[in-house]
Amino acid sequence: MPCYSIEGVVPVIDPSAHVHPTAVLIGDVIVGPGCYVGPCASLRGDFGRIVLQRGANVQDTCVIHGFPEQDTVVEENGHIGHGAVLHSCIIRRDVLVGMNAVVMDEAEIGEASIVAACAFVPAGMKVPPRSLVAGMPAKVKRALSDAEVAWKLEGTLTYQDLTRRCLATMVEVAPLAAIEPGRPRVKSVEVKSLIETRRGGAS
Question: How far apart (Å, rounded) are the C-alpha atoms in residues 114 and 107?
Answer without folding.
Answer: 14
